[in-house]
Design goal:
Elements (H helix, E strand, L loop, with lengths): L4 H15 L8 H8 L3 H13 L3 E4 L5 E4 L8 H9 L21 H17 L4 H14 L3
Helix pairs in contact: 1-3, 1-4, 1-6
Length: 143
Amino acid sequence: MRISTKGRYALRLMLDLATHCSGEPIRLKDVARRQSISEKYLEQIISVLNKAGYVRSIRGPQGGYVLQKAPKEYTVGMILRLTEGSLTPVECAEGGGMCDMEESCATRILWKKLDDAINSVVDHVTLEDLLDWQAEQIHDYVI
């Protein structure tokens, strides 16, 4: 399984909104500058996040975007599944009788274990955790 730029950038966008949350809307061009991501690409991603209710758009000259909920309420899994779809490494790990060998295939056990491990990580790491990790990295930096 490989996470696309859309999924990675969506996560960076949400983290940026959480990092710079001051009650004021955050302009997409500011996020684009800080994250070194094309504003046009971020517009596509923010549209998906907005439709899902993850962010709220505020119009006008002082407009921008804000998170709809607290960072602790967003998991990495929520954001990645929204932008990537399924995170399952192979189709047969999802079940559903897609393979004639499903009942006797030893590799399916491996794929299911891998799927469970991926889901366990992404569903237990929140934006708040990422904020904490980010703060630790900044404080661990020594010149």
